[in-house]
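My main concern about presentation is that the manuscript never shows what a single data entry looks like. The format is easy to grasp once an entry is in front of the reader. For illustration, here is how one protein appears when written out as sequence plus structure tokens:
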Amino acid sequence: MLHSLNSMSRTGAVALALVTVVALAVACTGGGGSSDESKLPTASPDIRGTITTLNVFEDTTSILIEGIVEEDTGYDKASVSLPADGAVFAEDGSMASARDLAEGQRVEAWFTGPVAESYPVQATGEAVRILSE
């Protein structure tokens, strides 16, 4: 009887350790959701302005955004390359797509990675939100 209790205790301990490792792995990868579940960034946008040039390609969308530097933005003009997996949002925060973007639209954009400090700056877009006029 003592031998079977020790065996069950070991099995329980191993199961608990396995559950703990799996829980930590899920927590470290941002949860169990799919990578398609993009969220609007909580930081202030890098730029807010009007799309003056738009080029949609198979694997990327290139937009030129022109605006003014505002209290919560850092740039007045930016050439933003949005990869195919870049997030585009409607104003209410719901998902949209690069095909919903149009010249003349007012948008705000968040950058990811290094920014080429030319004029206009050149950056990779993490997210773009379409604004109403």
